[in-house]
Amino acid sequence: MTGGGVPEHKLSEHDWLLIEALGRTRTGRSEVPTVVADGPKVKDWASLLRVRRELHAAAPQRIVEVVQSCAETGEFVAHRESGLVVVGVPIRCAFDEVHGVQVWAGPDDVRLPERPRVAAWDWQADTELAHHGPGLEELVFARAPEDVRVIRTPPEAFGRMVRFEGRIDYFEMVGTLDGRHQSAVDMIGDDDLVRSFQMVTRADPVARRIRALMREFTDAVPAQPDVDMTMLRAVSQRADEGVGFIWLSSGLIYEWTRIPTPPLDRWGIERPTVHPDDLADFRTACADLAEERAADAAARHLRLRVRFTDTDWIPVRAELLPVLPAESGHGLIRVWRELAN
């Protein structure tokens, strides 16, 4: 836009806004949307009534109206008034809900800048499965269209994370299914390139779901690998068993650093059913280890039976260990098939 007669300093005045519409009250009503990004700048759940006031006295109200229209209809909206243009682009999730709106507001003689890439996802607590919205996998994983799937297990996503600044706070929200959280995350794509994202999440305790937006800002924030996680992943590659990270409070295995060997390798992309007679012991062991939260907490050894789609029960040995720092609430799980005597 520098060649179109618009001074460079004005570009930042007319950046795209990202407005989240993720919140739901306990009665199911939508919470008031907030601004979470202004161009490359991350915003801390800012009010819509304080943005773009310098453009026009009516700008904040028109932005609110455009966001409401996009959220209700799921359609692109453009409003023009007295030299002011407000454009809204809805961001849909896999359930055809609007999780956010990208808004541009500026004078009608300024050309719209390129719109940042944003996509949505949901995670369902009861199934422990993620549902990826339109364009999410292409954006985050640089995935070819023929490889795109809507439903994924947590390890399929977390296994691609190079950095997750808010891992502990995020899982606290997941465990309680309450609150909201923003983080910077770095993801490695199918093309082996690392991209940075702003991840915006809110919990819905009624639907028992985490709703989220992912906004790419690779050019704004250089990728910073998590050294501790990188070392743990590297060490686990030497193991003969499957090794994964587990959130102890919920028993959620969210990443496999080493996929279990067959026939348990399906655990990497499928959530198995744990035998009802074994599930209580598994959850108790996780809860006990989470309660201790001590560096010298003893490992827990378990026998489980798991079943994948179209398989019989498979006997499994499992070992649970805390991850330091112990107060993080995270653990390591090792699993291998138990062979008959």
UniProtKB/TrEMBL annotation:
Domain Rv3651-like N-terminal, chain residue ranges per copy: 15-114
Pfam families: Rv3651-like_N
Protein name: DUF5593 domain-containing protein
InterPro entries (UniProt xref): Rv3651-like_N
